[in-house]
Amino acid sequence: MEILQSIWASIISILNDSGLLGLFQGDGWKNAIMIGIACFLLYLAIGRQFEPLLLLPIAFGMLLVNLPLSGVMDVPTTELVPLAKASATEIAKYGQVIMPDGQTYVEVAHSGGLLYYLYLGVKLGIYPPLIFLGIGAMSDFGPLIANPKSFILGAAAQIGIFFTFCGAILLGFPSNVAGSIAIIGGADGPTAIYVTSKLAADYLGPIAVAAYSYMALVPIIQPPIMRLLTTKKERAVVMTQLRTVSKTEKIMFPIIVTIVVALLLPSAAPLVGMLMLGNLMRESGVVKRISDAAQNELMNIVTIFLGTTVGATARAEVFLTTETLLIVGLGLTAFCLGTAFGVIFGKLMYIFTGGKVNPLIGSAGVSAVPMAARVSQKVGQETNPSNYLLMHALGPNVAGVIGSAVAAGVLLAVLGK
Amino acid sequence: MLTSLMPAAFTQAVGTELSDSKGMLMAVITCSGILIVFAILLLLIFIFYAYGGIFGAITSAKSKKLAAKKAAEAASKVKEEQTVTAASPEPVDDGTIPGEIIAVIAAAVAAMSDGKKYAVKKVSRAQRQTGSRNAWAAYGIYENTRPF
């Protein structure tokens, strides 16, 4: 009988220490909701293949952190244990401390959770520039060099960021948080994370999840806005072939952009600098091994760390608030405004060039490479199946990456003080 | 650097956020933000237009030189051939198309001829409309963009 009682007691003890009970105690229901959201995002990533490379690790990080007592994001702590209660090993390992009350303690250190340490790469602003390095190594700036006018569309699509900033201020967010929310309009996940980690690290979870969700939903959000703002005649415009860009021009491009942007806006240097370094490695052709590593191994490793740890910042107590709903709403507004301003400037270019520019390429000004350019191509082909806008849209698309990094630099320079 | 050049009202507005001058803060950040982003990207447009112009001029000068050199070489080659074999048949092209390309064209014609025998008598360059793609480029674009 005693054996049975001991077994029962140990089962009860295990259950009491398990995370399962945590779901039914206090605010445990919030964790249950977050687990549901994480599973839904996993479904979107796997079942619907919406930006799976990022959504999958983000969703799994969210799942892990919301499992009660998992401790994956626990901060490292120290505990003062009275000398009498400390074990010999602890005394030998941590040493003794005499406190002002005259008592002797042992300062026992508890290490943090795995994801906490990986998260330091986000907190210290290391991962986003590394992602930019990989993006640079994968990007071909040829269409932008061939048609520098595309820079205007890359700039126009950033206007939404600044209008959303106003909206966030009006809704009562402090200026640093408003800046972090507004940058979602750049449709550039790493930039949004970089700015938020510098300006409002507490809001990283909802802002990163909103930014990546909208990037994944580009093919759904953008086409209605593009159709609404353009006529059938404008959408059918076939653009002339781009000129051939020489290798020397491609090599000089990242060097010139880095010098110009970093001199004028030093706060944008980490993002633009790494983007251009990656591109220089690609175009120079002399460091093929490093370029391949930046495009593949490094990019994949950082994506795993970034995605998982960003997802792990979405704890129930931070995520399930009315503020998160406002952030999601404002993020959508920023994204739609960015798309709309890109198309409007595309229309202006259509008018000023006498109908030579298809306004649909303007929507690609919101980074999201190459998804936004593909959307321009797809919407263009709905009207004229023999129209190939992809190469023309890639110009504003990569200009958007530079534009959003510059906009981020402006926000950091102004609000980061 | 740019931020240090901003008017005093700018820094004042950021600093006076706590004193409820939200309107000022929004107006100043929005206007100066848009202005700076456009200024930097417009500067890049200017730089890359100038840059493209310079490179275009260098490249066209080089290609003109190269074309002239090739034409001269081809002309001298044809002359030599004519003097060596006075009884040889008429040249198939005007001398600007390499022999390998003519062989490829002849092979392509033979491959499509269903067993009949053809002789390539003349190969000439077709005049292309400015701005339009050649057949290979058009096919390449079609292949690359088909998934989208």
Give a verbal description of the structure.
The complex is a heterodimer of chains A (417) and B (148). Chain A has 417 residues and is mostly helical. Chain A folds into three domains: 2-72; 77-110, no CATH class; 124-415, no CATH class. Chain A has 22 helices and three strands. Chain A has helices at residues 2-17, 19-22, 28-46, 52-65, 88-94, 114-123, 127-138, 142-146, 150-156, 159-170, 175-182, 189-199, 204-216, 218-229, 232-235, 247-264, 269-284, 288-312, 316-319, 322-352, 371-383, 390-415; strands at residues 77-82, 96-98, 104-110. A three-stranded antiparallel β-sheet of chain A has the order 1-3-2. In chain A, helix 11 (175-182) packs antiparallel against helix 12. The radius of gyration of chain A is 25 Å and the shape is elongated. Chain B is mostly helical and 148 residues long. Chain B has two domains: 1-88; 90-148, no CATH class. Chain B has five helices and no strands. Chain B has helices at residues 2-5, 8-15, 22-84, 99-111, 135-145. In chain B, helix 2 (8-15) packs across helix 3. The longest helix of chain B has 63 residues, at 22-84. Classes of the chains: A mainly alpha (417), B mainly alpha (148). Chains A and B meet through helix 8, helix 9, helix 10, helix 16 and helix 21 of A and helix 3 and helix 5 of B.
